Amino acid sequence: MSGRPIGEQEHAPLACLHYDSRAPEVARMVAGMIHQHLPDVDVEHVGSTAVPGCAGKGVIDLLIPYREGELEPLRDTLQELGFQRQSTRNPFPEDRPMRVGSMRYDGDTFGLHVHVVPADSREPGELRAFRDQLRADPKMMEAYVRRKRDIIEGGTTDGIDYSIAKGSFILEALAKRSSADG
């Protein structure tokens, strides 16, 4: 045991799990750990686990938008806490890293993905917008869960392939939002 609060990423078969109401608390705890080292960075809970009632992989996604000069301290802090670099094919580049890990809470292990994204890019706004759309529109959330289940039931077993397959749904939702706003 390394003594770090974040454990190794656990690899489990791809599944669309029921929403776990403990996920927001785990997200707050991890954000608090990061804030102990870097109190001025924003850490936001995004993804399916940030949407009450939304089924998904059960991995807690956190977004950290970074400004100039913050990337290296962020990567170092995440490593000190125990987060690891991705070990899958096609990892995110190091100027937009994703770190992975896990945390035990209430007798269960929660997977963690921390997306460290340039604050001046479109991605932070898109991640927030999609989360907020799912929160505001139960029919969209149900359709998104159905799409995820269809992907898995269709035989997809690789996490990267799964993310690519559900990406078209996310892009369509964001496009609808843009046309409604525009």
Order of helices and strands: HEEHEEEHHH
Structural class: alpha+beta
- Which radius of gyration do the C-alpha atoms yield? 16 Å
Low-confidence blocks of residues: none
Distance between the termini: 52 Å
CATH level 1 name: Alpha Beta
Helix content: 40-55%
What's the pLDDT, averaged over the residues? 94
* Global outline: globular
Number of strands: 5
Strand content: 15-25%
Give me the CATH architecture, please: 2-Layer Sandwich
Oligomer: single chain
Strand order within the widest sheet?
1-2-5-4-3
Provide the CATH superfamily.
Beta Polymerase, domain 2
| Number of domain units | 1
Protein described:
This protein is of the alpha+beta class and 182 residues long. It has a single domain, classed as Beta Polymerase, domain 2, CATH 3.30.460.10. The chain is 43% helix and 17% strand. It is built from 5 helices and 5 strands. Strands 1-2-5-4-3 form a 5-stranded mixed β-sheet, with helices on both faces. The radius of gyration is 16 Å and the shape is globular. The relative contact order is 0.17.
